[in-house]
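Proteins fold. Shown next:

***
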Amino acid sequence: MKNKLLIIFILLVIAITGGTIYLNKVFLPTKIKSLVVDGLKEKTGKDVTLESLQFNIFQGLVLNNLKIYDDKKTFLSLKEGSCVFLIFPVFKGQLIIPSIRIKSAEIFLHRRQDNSLNIADLFAKHSTGPAAKGKFNVFVRKINVTNSRLKFQDDTVAPTFVKDLDISRLVLYMSLPASVKFELSVTAPVKIKANGEYQILRQELSARANLDGLLPREFAAYYQGLGLKSEGGSVDALLNLSFKDAILSSDITAKAKALSVSAGNISTTLNSAVKANLTYNTRTKNLAYSAAIDIADSPDLVLGGIGRVNAIKGKLNLSNAGVSLDILSAQAKLDKVSSPIEDIAGHIEFNPGQVNWADLNFRYQDIPYKTSGGLSDFKSPVVQLKVSAPDWAADTRFKVENKIITISKLYGHYFDSAFALTGIIDISNPDSLNANLSGGSNLALGDLKLVFKNFAKQLEAAKLDGTVLAKFRLSGNLKDIKSCAIAGLFSGPDIYLYGLRAQDLSLSYNQENGIVQIPLMRASFYDGTVDGSAKVNLNAADSPYWISAAMQGVKIEKLKLDTGAKKANIAGTIQAEAKINGFWNDASKTSGAGKILIKDGKLWELDLFKGFGKLLFAKDFANIVFKEGSADFIVENEYIKSNNILLKSDFVNLTGLCKIGFDGSLDSSINIEVQDEFVPLSGTFKDVATAIIGRAGRFGTIKTTGTLKEPKYKFIPAVMNILDTLKNTIQDAISNSLNR
């Protein structure tokens, strides 16, 4: 039995060996090789060469150096391919190959300008009908390609896109003429794992691919027409692809790694998760895209000509319409702004040549702001801007062209002041901001100390308050306001200075070459008027000034209501004039002169005169009326001085001198002259004195020291005058008694 089996085995080996020799030496080279070549020529419409066709008991048919080509390009070349085929269909004129294995092949995939693929040509003439007499129908079910290269060329874009892919494995499942399914693994230049199906007759593709290390810059031909650029970085992505009716669509989930993206003057580098959708029309060559990018790795967003935004957290949305950025937090450094902008949060949209933002909050120099607006045309920017802060807000529209800012509108408020402005500013010289502006304001005077901080102390002491309506024109260097030419008109219904109220203010202001002039100031003042003029030299170090003022018909009984003496029984009419000069920052150098006239004055309840009255008189003195009063005064050495004070009444005249310091100090010497007789009231010294003083003339002198708030008095009687008067009074009394 064993011998029979051995004999059978030997015969089988001899048969197989003989059959193999016959196939490789006779049948395959002479008949099958030509059938394969002719069959491939017919099915592909290409030229086909095959170096050799052999049979291997383990591999089946082995093809060496197969080449499919035409007069333009080689579609397929391989060093070695092998396949098995079914024996019995051969006798029916059919070569059925379940599987072809290809090693070290080069495959050329060509997308032509008419959007057709050369792969479709290989199967276009496929027929399932009976074979022509003497020919075979060739059926291939599966092609397995390993260690090969795919050469891809796309003529639908300019410049022509060419890319080589190193294929570790490509499997094609043939269901001809209907479709081809595929599985693909690529190792370079990008790692790809993909699978899908191509419907040949309908030219439809559906596929799914994983990409690792895709370099978008190498595919610039597909998106550079949109103004997009990518110069660095890579992407790992999952793609769902479809191609139908000349439309290529892709849903993408990706992770960007140091990916640089730019559109016009806007650029950024991304390390972010991306979800995107791309649709490319191969006929019109239009690409529609949208992408949502989660930003959490602090990329920089560079705004050309504007600045840089960094430390961004939020979401970036890209589409054909533009770029939309929802910021959770970020900070920015703008080219024309000295300090960084921090705590940025809000919505920004970047369109080609345009930026828009809404409800954008940020912090600058530790002050919170809120803004909305837009910027268009980066070469000649047009800006629409609304911005607000805790103490101010503005709404403006301006254009920057050739380094000229043209402000078409600027409305806003600062604290309680409102303003409006138009004009131009020249920014061509970094050392100056030459401007030509005009505008108006509703100025709250109490805000001036916040604007002119160098003079805040003086303005605070002046208790300046009220609202002024202003119209102005300005030309000159905004970095040196003193040198600007300014003309303004100011008016206000109620103005307060040192607590005193002026009404119906009218004031003109002129400034040129550092010289400020107020040629006219007029206001109503407690039933009277105040007129004035002023001049300030801003060029000098201490800003010297000259002021001239005149007062007419001012009623004391109304003025007192805005002073600490509002409850005092005082009245009268004041007329005054003064000329003062000095230095704004040095009160010690203030000097000047003036004159005060008072008519029908009731002054005894003023703190200063009340002390006089209590010292002199026992009876009620509040109703004594000074029919006339006057004093010339000078200002020097931080004092207001008068040497000719005169107050006249029917009963008493006051004359003398007084010196009042800027610090409120007081030093005066007032002579008392009584003009009438009074009956003694209580027998005191001053009662007797009062009774006789009508004949005495000069009664005495009152020295006053201390301060205006707390004066101190000292009475110095005119003793000789009083004794002479007393003697004469006694003699008159005796004479009158004897005569009776």
Notes: Confidence is low (pLDDT under 50) at residues 677-698. DSSP finds eight helices and 43 strands in the chain. The CA atoms of residues 187 and 354 lie 42 Å apart. The helical segments are 2-44, 118-121, 448-451, 456-462, 556-559, 607-616, 685-696, 719-739.
